[in-house]
Amino acid sequence: MSPDAARARGNASPRAKTADRRGLVIGAERDALRASFGALLRQERRAAGLSQAQLAERAGSTSFGISRLENGHVRPSTSMTWRLARALRGHLGEREAVALDLRLKLAAGSSLRCFSERTHRRRERIAAEVLAGVEPSLAGADPFSTYVLDLLADGS
Description:
CATH architecture of the domain at 23-114: Orthogonal Bundle
CATH class of the domain at 23-114: Mainly Alpha
Number of strands: 0
C-alpha cells in the first residue's frame, strides 16, 4: 500500500511510525518531559560538574542526544536511563547508580521506552536489596515509586 493510500485510510504514515520508534516527542508531552526528566538529568549533570559532551562520552551517546533528552525532544529508553545513571553516579557505587536509575525512570513516567522484556537480573537484585530497607507497609504495589519518593523525602 502506498503512503498516500495509507493516509487516505486513516493509517499513520510510514514517516510517523518511524518517528514513534525513534521516540520523538511533540506538544504537551515534550513540555512535561522537559520539566520532569530533562530537569532532573540537567540537575544531576551539573551537580556532577559535567558538560553535555562529557556526559555523552561517559554514557555512550552524543552531546546532541543529551541535549535532546534534557529538552524533552526524545523519550528516554530504559537502557539510556541506566547508562546515564552509571555515567553520573557509577563512581559512587552501584547502589547510587540504581537509585538514580529509578529516579530517572520515575521522572520519565509514561514516556519511558522499553525495547524488550529482557531482565536485568543484577540491577533487579541490587534494587531489591536497596528496597529491603523500606518499611513493609510502604512497599505496596509500586515499590520503585515508593523508594524514589523516600529518597526525595530524605533529601538524597
